[in-house]
Amino acid sequence: MNDATHLLEEMNDRSREVFRRVVESYLDSGDPVGSRTLTRTLSEKVSAATVRNVMQDLEYLGLLDSPHTSAGRVPTQMGLRMFVDGLLEVGDLSEGDRKKIDETTTSNTADVGNLLDRVGAALSGVTKGASLVLSPKHETEIRHIEFVNLAHDRALVVLVFADGHVENRLFKPPPGQTPSSMREAANFLNALIEGKTLAEVRKVIQYEISRRRQEIDSLAREMVESGLAVWDGDDVDSARLIVRGRANLLAGDEEEEGLERIRTLFDDLERKRDIAEFLDLTEQGDGVRIFIGSENKLFSLSGSSLVVSPYMNADRKVIGAVGVIGPTRLNYGRIVPIVDYTAQLVGRLIADRS
């Protein structure tokens, strides 16, 4: 149990209701909530002074904060986390939202990239936020690996998968590589890859390199390590990040400082080559996860929230993720079922196309 959840259990009914009403009002309007306004909405008839005292106690606990421009209160990041974990009421997906998301799947195209582009656009349109879609990596077992020397600073990795799929990836080899050292590196890999996916090969190779470091020629070792680094993250075709609707997110923040932080966030996202972190965010547990502010290092500088869910292939392996970025005052109760449904739908569609 985290500290925020423990605090929630320790609060009396009045404090819990005041806290819930402050957060719900803030999520709805984005404005600080004052005690006089709150008094009119409480189920229990109490004075504004009593409500003000309760709000001061909640502020002392670190759950609410007072912006210097207003006498009202807003939830802190800790307060939002407690609300999401203990008080959030997740609604059902509306028929209108479901229909808009389903409409993206009406095409019979087998192009997964085109499908995910449309899903990202629909998700952004429905939520009025910015959507993220991480397209799947090729998870089929590898049959053969070959290195081809193109120039002194350029080489090609040819990957042949068990299903007949072939990928060619360019990379910069370590200095001093020769055709013979490239063949040695390829022979070393091919002796170990049978029946393994690319991710599994990487783990095996890392172990073998540490265990048999003295047995492997240093140049071949550098080749292997360099090649693996390229395969794991720099190939944008096999693990592509689709960002849609950045205008929606920018329109929701009128402060110039906030705008600049969010622009920086998106510039970083669009430059980012190693995007495996999005899968790391989702593989820790099933279903939708919510990251608020600095809980997610990718978005901590922008002060944004991320609602993200993995999608799986027919073997129940996580192969990608879909999510929505927005200001911390997202309508979580509505966004969570939308992201959950979209992730499940994408998983089924990719399984069908496979």
From TrEMBL:
Keywords: Repressor, Stress response, Transcription, Transcription regulation. Signal peptide: none annotated. One of its GO terms (biological process) is negative regulation of DNA-templated transcription. Residues 115-336 form the Heat-inducible transcription repressor HrcA C-terminal domain. It comes from the Bacteria. GO terms for molecular function: DNA binding. Belongs to the HrcA family. Negative regulator of class I heat shock genes (grpE-dnaK-dnaJ and groELS operons). Prevents heat-shock induction of these operons. This is Heat-inducible transcription repressor HrcA.
